[in-house]
Known about the structure:
The protein is an alpha+beta fold. The protein has one domain (2-152): Cathepsin B, Chain A, CATH 3.90.70. Helices cover 27% and strands 24% of the residues. It is built from 5 helices and 6 strands. It has helices at residues 2-10, 18-24, 35-45, 63-76, 135-141; strands at residues 51-54, 82-86, 103-112, 117-122, 129-134, 142-152. Strands 1-6-2-3-4-5 form a 6-stranded antiparallel beta sheet, with helices on both faces. A hairpin with a 4-residue loop joins β3 and β4 (117-122). α1 (2-10) crosses α2 (18-24). The chain is globular.
Amino acid sequence: MPAAAVVSLSTLGIKVSQSRFAAKMHMTRQGEYDGEDFYGAVNRYLHDTPYQVNNVGGPDSEPDFVMREVAYDVGVLQRAPMLSVWGERLPWHKGTERGRKVDHMVVAVGYDRSKGTVTVFDPWPDTGGVRTLPVATLARTLQIGGLYFIYQRSWSWETTTPTASPRLSPGGGPR
């Protein structure tokens, strides 16, 4: 999780080490953490930017939805969104974790609508790297709420109480 967050934050111009991010999210040496601590750590780093990250629900398992959201974050915002996946379902990890669910995160770094593919960076040490896969395959690997959307806030931390803002479409209106 920390590696994917560090890559995603770097696309926002935020530089932080993986170990420092892991400490901010209160990750134990055994790799245990609370999801709320993960959100909190990411959004603390985004405090001085016009962005926030959330995984507001959606039909994550629908390829059209996944492609639309990845295309918006990567193509319009030019940011790399984090995707929470079941690691054992990724094609390049198949068979590596028999009988075990592996909470894992990759980062979307590209897409090709015409081919129906998404390119991700997988920070897994042995089998990771930059990989391109069909969006339908990626959608099947996602955990519930696995798309970490990058929102452009319509409020400022200093002037108002933070509330979730609608995602802005390329045309400026809510989607």
